[in-house]
Amino acid sequence: MSSKLSKTISYIVFALIGVALLFFVFKDVDFSAMWNDIVHANYVWIGLALVLAMVAYICRAARWNLLIEATCDHKPSLKNAFWAEMFGYFANLALPRVGEIARCGALKRTENLPFDTLIGTVIVERAFDVLVTLLLAFITFFLQIDLFGAFISDKVLAPTAERFSSISLNGVILVCALLLLTLILFFVLKGKDNFVVTKIKSFCKGIFEGLSSVYKLEKRGWFMFYTIALWACYWIMTWFVCLALQPTANLGLDDGLFLLVVGSIGMAVPVQGGIGAYHYIVALALTIYNLDFNSVGLLYATISHESQLILEILLGIVSLYFVFRKKNV
Questions:
Q1: Do the beta carbons of residue 211 and residue 124 sit within 8 Å?
Q2: What letter does residue 246 receive in the DSSP assignment?
Q3: Which of 67, 176, 257, 263 is a plausible cystine mate for 121, CB 3.0–4.6 Å?
Q4: What ranges make up the beta strands (E) of the chain?
């Protein structure tokens, strides 16, 4: 199967999953009532949320620059890093998780940096973001132990346990067989000096160099500052969307933190832009506050997700110009 055909099939499959999720989530929604609520939302708060989103994107690009500078002894311009990042977000709308590869390819084009090493720096970034998400979940758990505990136990763990209990023996055997096949393939290729192994070794070396960049950082204080700043922006913009809607306007900053953590879980689901998954889990989270799933939960999730999605699309389109206008040599 050709690479182009494989990518096309992957795009179609993930797109169909996203459409199926959207249908499942929105099948009982009164769209005329939802549209009326969207029209009457307070767009001052939504506009402020999008401003914070822009600040977060800039902080992320500046943080990425610090890792690249420590690894490649070259500091890309903040402009190139920013537009490469937006190109990555844009690419994620086509195929989940391809955005990380796309932004590395974009920066390689504009700054002529080694692609494998850039991948390593992105892994470092994502590792830190996972740690921050876990830390925020830990903080939220103790700030709102009753709400968070009820959500995790009733809405996440119980349904998950029920699904796992229904997994057949054949499913377990299939997973074990795939793991065994992977190990056999590893030992067959090990030590062979062929093109595949050489590329894998080169790729792993680049990733290791990127991972090691965190130990070479001379500006660790700035790295932590940008990390805290971008997540603070995510937190406050999540709360600002609450203020934009009358049913959620009474929710506080701690509730915004809870929705941020839950929304991060939804965005981690491998569908284009978290479509469907984000809407479902955030709307589900709002039912903990005795708010209706369809009329309030999905209204909040739709405005929160689609406003940022429109911003990413617009910036992604602009990024095409900055990434492809000129190839550095």
A1: yes
A2: G
A3: 67
A4: none
Instruction: Please tell me the distance from the alpha carbon of residue 302 to that of residue 34, in angstroms, as a whole number.
Output: 10
Distance, in Å, from the CA atom of 105 to the CA atom of 300, rounded to the nearest integer, reads 35
Q: How far apart (Å, rounded) are the C-alpha atoms in residues 197 and 108?
A: 23
pLDDT score at 164: 44
**Dihedral angle sign, alpha carbons of residues 228, 233, 236, 238:** negative
- Residue pair 105/191 in contact by the 8 Å Cβ criterion: no
Burial class (CB in 10 A: 0-12, 13-18, 19+), 251: buried
Residue 251: which of 219, 282, 208 has the closest Cα? 282
Tokens of 237: 């913009």
Terminal Cα distance for the chain, rounded: 33
The percent helix, strand, coil of the chain (3-state, each to 5) is 85, 0, 15
- Kindly give, in sequence order, each residue whose CB lies less than 8 Å from that of residue 122, ignoring residues fewer than 6 positions away: 64, 100, 103, 104, 210
pTM for this one? 0.77
Positions of the chain with pLDDT lower than 70, given as ranges: 1-15, 18, 96, 145-216, 270-272, 326-329
Confirm if 210 and 123 have CB atoms less than 8 A apart: yes
Backbone angles phi, psi at 138, to 5 degrees: -65, -45
| Angstrom distance (rounded) from CA 215 to CA 25 | 44
Tens of pLDDT, residues 41-92: 999 999 999 999 999 999 999 999 998 888 877 888 999 999 999 999 998 8
CB 242 within 8 A of CB 249: yes
Say which residue the tokens 């349904």 belong to: 159
* Gyration radius of the chain's alpha carbons: 22
